[in-house]
């Protein structure tokens, strides 16, 4: 993909998001180390046997599937891979805006779970996502 927008030594949208994912996973891993003794103290049987299910998804891998960049903005579509989400495909769409020497995430949509991103429910537009195939819970909660 050709990069249409460049500011000095600014990273491209893919590099920016990959850096964000690495930093987030490192923080999740650190938090999980601290959560284990909390769960041991508060969870009883049989829940304590499944305590790992309640940890943050620090082994989740978010993979960049597509990047569409234009002057000062970008859309990045990702898919999430996790050993806990076997057989489940979770896709996200990140909206990025260029800000000086970097990017900022301005919105995150999830693929609609009702229509699986098609925007259709039978022969009519999906009511959950308004026919877009993507869902922004913040926008739809209003």
Characteristic key phrases:
disordered N terminus; 2 domains; flat; five-stranded antiparallel sheet; 142 residues; single chain; alpha+beta; Nuclear Transport Factor 2, Chain: A; 2 helices; two-stranded antiparallel ribbon
Report on the architecture of this protein.
The chain is of the alpha+beta class. The protein has two domains: 13-110, Nuclear Transport Factor 2, Chain: A (Roll), CATH 3.10.450.630; 112-142, no CATH class. Helix content is 24%, strand content 32%. The chain has helices spanning 13-42, 137-140; strands at 61-70, 73-81, 90-99, 102-111, 120-121, 124-125, 134-135. The strands form two sheets. Strands 1-2-3-4-7 form a five-stranded antiparallel β-sheet. A two-stranded antiparallel ribbon has the order 5-6. The chain is flat, with a radius of gyration of 18 Å.
Mind sketching the topology for me?
Blueprint: H1 13-42, E1 61-70, E2 73-81, E3 90-99, E4 102-111, E5 120-121, E6 124-125, E7 134-135, H2 137-140
Antiparallel strand pairs: 1-2, 2-3, 3-4, 4-7, 5-6
Brief rundown of the structure:
The chain has 2 helices and 7 strands, in the order αβββββββα. By secondary structure, it is α+β, with helices and mostly antiparallel strands.
* Uncertain residue segments: 1-8
Structural class: alpha+beta
- End-to-end CA span: 36 Å
Total count of strands? 7
SSE sequence, one letter per element: HEEEEEEEH
The number of distinct structural domains comes to 2
The CATH class of the largest domain turns out to be: Alpha Beta
User: Strand-residue fraction?
Assistant: 25-35%
Q: What name is given to the CATH topology of the largest domain? A: Nuclear Transport Factor 2, Chain: A
* Rg for CA atoms: 18 Å
pLDDT averaged residue by residue: 84
Helix amount: 10-25%
User: Order of strands side by side in the largest beta sheet?
Assistant: 1-2-3-4-7
The largest β sheet comes out as: 5 strands, antiparallel
Number of helices: 2
In the CATH hierarchy, what is the architecture of the largest domain at level 2?
Roll
Shape: flat
């Amino acid at each position: 993909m050709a990069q249409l927008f460049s500011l000095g030594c600014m990273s491209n949208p893919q590099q920016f998001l990959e850096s964000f994912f690495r930093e987030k996973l490192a923080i999740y891993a650190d938090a999980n180390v601290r959560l284990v003794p909390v769960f041991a103290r508060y969870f009883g049987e049989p829940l304590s046997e499944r305590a790992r299910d309640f940890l943050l998804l620090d082994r989740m891998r978010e993979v960049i599937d597509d990047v569409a960049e234009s002057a000062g903005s970008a859309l990045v579509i990702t898919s999430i891979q996790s050993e806990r989400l076997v057989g489940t495909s979770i896709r996200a769409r990140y909206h990025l805006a260029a800000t000086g020497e970097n990017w900022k995430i301005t919105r995150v949509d999830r693929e609609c779970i009702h229509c699986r991103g098609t925007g259709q429910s039978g022969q009519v537009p999906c009511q959950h996502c308004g026919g877009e195939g993507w869902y922004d819970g913040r926008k739809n909660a209003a």
